[in-house]
Amino acid sequence: MVVQQDNLEEKRIREQLDEIKIFYEEGKRKVKCFCGKTLNASIVPHLKKNHPEEWEKWCIRFVDLRNEGLSYYRIIHKFKANDRLLFTTSVVEKDVQRIIEGKKAKLKVPCKKEIDRWQQRI
Ligand SMILES: [Zn+2]
Q: In sequence order, what are the residues at sequence separation of 6 or more whose Cβ sits closer than 8 angstroms to the Cβ of residue 46?
């Protein structure tokens, strides 16, 4: 069976998400990363620092999902760990912008800024 590269990436992200656990300890939110480390509150700084290559793949996946027409709200609901949200929409939005500005991936749907610029030219 031929498996597309995209599907492989998606499967890997899925597997990593399955390994992440969000839980509460004495009322405080904790996140256990797929590497086994437990983080306070947010996993994002840890992912950026300790798993930059993986994080980059996740961000490119965010762009892909945007290109499939999903809103940021829908995207964060695709990245859940034990049914709890891992990211906020602003985290995803910021990193989608970063990926596009770094020209690592393209957004098919023009963002609002581009539309404004385009209108100004007329
Ligand atoms: Zn980790």
A: 33, 37, 39
What global pTM score does this model have?
0.80
Taking the centre of ligand 1 as the mean of its atom positions, its distance from the CA of residue 104, in whole angstroms, is 23
Give 119 Cα–ligand 1 centroid separation in angstroms. 44
Alpha helices (H) in the chain, listed in sequence order: 5-19, 44-50, 52-67, 72-76, 89-101, 112-121
Q: Report helix, strand or coil for 42.
A: coil
pLDDT (average), residues 54-64: 95
CA–chain centroid gap for 77, Å, is 10
Q: What is the DSSP letter of 31?
A: E
pLDDT at 43 over 90: yes
Task: For residue 108, report the distance from its CA to the centre of ligand 1, in Å.
Answer: 31
